[in-house]
Design goal:
- 2 copies of one chain form a homodimer.
- Chain A folds into 2 domains: 82 residues, Arc Repressor Mutant, subunit A; 97 residues.
- In chain A, strands 1-3-2 form a 3-stranded antiparallel beta sheet.
- Chain A is mainly α and 204 residues long.
- The first copy, chain A, is built from 8 helices and 3 strands; from the N terminus they run H-E-H-H-E-E-H-H-H-H-H.
- In chain A, strand 2 and strand 3 form a beta hairpin.
- Chain A starts with a helix and ends in an 11-residue tail after the last helix.
- At the A-B interface, helix 1, helix 5, helix 6 and helix 8 of A face helix 1, helix 5, helix 6 and helix 8 of B.
- Chain A binds a DNA duplex (28 and 28 nucleotides) through helix 2, helix 3 and strand 3.
Chain lengths: 204, 204
DNA sequence: AACATCATGTAATCGGTTACATGATTCA
DNA sequence: TGAATCATGTAACCGATTACATGATGTT
């Protein structure tokens, strides 16, 4: 099955019931490097999932006047997660905008070349750091998505969970570091292509 | 600007005028690891690009009875490529179905775990080989998309082009090898999680 | 009083996927 | 004669992006 926003929601709601807003927050602060989604996507997917009976909506107070909606998994929703987990993984089509662009740096002005490559490297260096930090909070049991499960899982199961998540976030960090390294190699190649180019500014 | 099928077409038509079928073939056999597109996408994108005046359509004979359409870049199309090449690269949102799945292997039956991981590894090993071979045909000047340009570019420009493409395809191969290695590490972790699991069959 | 954050949504559009549909040409 | 390849498209659908839209609550 093709993985989509629906599965992200199923994954997060297994941890605990949440509002759409909380789903969007948890996605942004934690799952985003593996699977990203905007709040629009999440709210519309929640509506469909509720129609299909995979999630249930409860109304809660927010402040004095307003209401918010707390979603939780139904048994059908838990099943849907189990089914997804057992299916073959459908890979996404290859789409690599950076390397598609970089295949043409021989015809691109050097200032653009170095600007794009440096941005790429920096983005992945930061991502790697963020993922390594996340891996640590998993293994230490400090991650909010782990803490929410404490007491509701056996110690052994929780230990396996921590180690598995930490391992995957470390692998995602390794991937980001690979991308940064690849960017550096491409940069070195670009310097051979444009040996005379001297960047004027170093101000960031 | 967001990279899409349109840019793939602009890139390929810079080499030489082609039919939609040839664009789809060249994508499949060569560009696919960097950017993939189906023939449906290509035909519909060609229509839009023609409306916008970025490509021009000429009618040619196919066999006795039928006609085919050969598309070429207009000056506006060449400009659009130049603009795309000079813009900041807009990264795609992170979507990594394999690691999103693998973050849950602690709750997944071991036969599914090893089946999915092994498929992932094998797919990337094959991709890496394919990309290394492509890199070689670039550097040797044997690649069809290079040969089509011979005589229409200066020797130096052609040399830079060959080296740049070969470098990028080698980087894409390195990325595929990284993914295979990452898969192997995840597999090793899974063997710690499921020490008692013995696969019954080795028949592929 | 102003700003950040919490909280919820809709709508237009875009780009991509999948399935459907057709038929000629070429080679074994 | 049959299969592979060449060749072109349409249509329904899906999922994601972007912009629009609103308003309460909590903090400085």
């Amino acid at each position: 099955m093709t993985t989509s926003t629906r599965h992200l929601i199923l994954i997060l709601l297994r941890v605990q019931p949440m509002t759409g807003y909380e789903l969007a927050q948890n996605t942004k602060i934690s799952v985003d490097p593996l699977w990203s989604a905007t709040h629009s996507q999440i709210y519309t997917a929640l509506q469909k999932l509720e129609e299909e009976g995979l999630v249930a909506r409860e109304t809660a107070k927010r402040g004095e006047r307003m209401e918010k909606y707390v979603y939780s998994l139904t048994p059908a929703g838990r099943d849907a997660f189990r089914v997804w987990l057992r299916e073959p993984i459908k890979p996404l089509p290859n789409r690599d905008p950076f390397r598609l662009w970089a295949a043409h740096i021989d015809e691109c002005p050097p200032e653009v070349v170095f600007r794009n490559i440096d941005e790429y490297i920096q983005r992945h260096v930061e991502l790697a750091e963020r993922l390594d930090r996340a891996a640590l909070t998993f293994i230490r049991g400090e991650h909010p998505l782990i803490q929410a499960r404490m007491g509701r899982m056996s110690d052994e199961a929780l230990e396996r969970l921590k180690r598995t998540r930490a391992m995957i976030y470390r692998e995602a960090a390794a991937k980001a570091r690979f991308e940064a390294e690849s960017g550096r190699r491409i940069r070195a190649f670009a310097q051979e292509l444009y040996p005379d180019y001297e960047p004027n500014e170093y101000d960031d």
